[in-house]
Amino acid sequence: MAKSADIFQDDASTVTAETAVDDLETDPHAYMVSWWELVFGSCALILWFSLFAGGILINIGSSRTALTSSETFWQGVSHLPLILSCWTVTNVGVLAVLAAILGAVGRRTRFTSNNTISRFSNSPLLKSRAAIIFYASAVIRGFGVYSLLLGGLLILATATLVAPSQEEYLRLALTISIISFYAGYNPEVFASLLKRAEGFFRKE
Questions:
Q1: How many other CB atoms are there within 10 angstroms of residue 25's CB atom?
Q2: 108-145: b or e for each residue (b if 16 or more CB lie within 10 Å)?
Q3: Closest to 61 (Cα-Cα) out of 84, 83, 93
Q4: Residues 153 and 147: beta-carbon distance below 8 Å
Q5: What are the residue ranges of helices labelled H in the chain?
Q6: Which of 38, 90, 130, 158 has its CA 20 to 30 A from that of 4?
Q7: At residue 79, what are phi and psi to the nearest 5 degrees?
Q8: Domain spans in the chain, listed from the N-terminal domain onward
Q9: Do 143 and 149 contact (CB within 8 A), yes or no?
């Protein structure tokens, strides 16, 4: 009997979390911003700038060569962190996800509003489970933007991804970050991108 009660309690908490996420999508001020959300957003911002600078300044050509010509497994693995963080294909993907997270944080703090503090003063705190769902959905939207743009770039401009110049990388990284930020800030932006992709496949 106690076990069935726990099951119903879990179901109720799941519904509550989903309801809270729905409330956030319609009204970001429905719940007060917690301190860990601000820390989370700050870390995402610092990481975005770090990866953006690494993508511009670090040439991973020698690391990629060392990875393929390593004599032992662990010698090759030692080059993977630098390659995964600074190689254009993976670098812009992480930038897209981080930008979407920043957009979601911006939606929660509502940086475009002048009465944020007064609106939040009477709002309850957001449960951690609902917050995880809210930010996880932003991560998925950022990855979706990355996938859509990467698919188009692979068809139209493969050289931009394989060996981009600094100017090409700047344009690519900033474009995907801006779109991902708005997709994280407003889910309807990502929905419109999916509709455009659906229209493209239907034409095909």
A1: 15
A2: bbbeeeeebeeebeeeeebeeebbebbbebbbebbbbb
A3: 83
A4: no
A5: 2-26, 35-57, 61-68, 73-77, 80-86, 88-109, 116-120, 128-156, 158-162, 166-185, 187-203
A6: 130
A7: -90, -10
A8: 32-203
A9: no
